[in-house]
Amino acid sequence: MKLWISKQTDAPIRDQLVTQLTLALSSGDIAVGEKLPSRGELSRRFGIHENTVSSAYKILSENGLVEFRKGSGFYARSSENTDKGRDLEWLTALYLKDATGLGADYETIRRTVLDQIKRKLADGIVVIEEDQDLRQILMYEISACTGEPVSGLTPNELNKSLPTKGKMVALADEKRKIERSIADCLYLKSRSIPEAMIGRERPADDALIALVSGWDGFLKMAQTILLAVEIAPESIMMRSTQEDGWKNGMGAASMVIADSLAARHFRGDPRLRVFPFLSDESVEDLKRLASES
Length: 293
Hints:
This protein is of the alpha/beta class.
């Protein structure tokens, strides 16, 4: 696992660590169950305070991406649960208890379950994602690669009212939030930093580079990638399409790096470089999912 830290930027070191580790975890560069470098190791490697590393690991832990094992260290979190709570009998009993608690009789429950099964393979793909801005990017990319109608829900919306139509997909880091609500879901991976850089030309040293997205997470990841290849921080201009007047000054940029959705604002612009969010592996998985009857 490679990490890059730049001290010549306004981006806090803690945030740089969180961004890179989150990307590595969600892309699979760090495997589930793999031990992460210790706080002392990262502190020595980058010449930073150990408390900074501790703070980054705390955020990752709160987000459910890593777990601390006493006396051992931090590990990429597995959302797999092997206790009896995942047994089919237990899940069925829990469903029946809740359904009858709402006043449903067993015949109504039986018809409802059969109806859900019959309608499961209906048209379309449903993206389950908490972050609205990221969800829009995922929906756009999935629609583009599959040609399927795509809709989106948050994990809370899924839990409140389970859709009866559509094939469910979500990023791997959403699994812990939704795995008890839906048994059949395709979990997707984001691109890793090395994958995002494959085949990309390195900008000239004097180039002014504009990073454009409606999702703050993309801006941070793209900034991290550029810093990793030693692009000077002052050569990076970050623009959120959520803000009024974001196009002001864009004419000065020699290169525009945008997510797939924001790239629509620059069609035909030779400066544009599009960084898709989903990994090539997940794109192929989505195409197979869309081809299923």
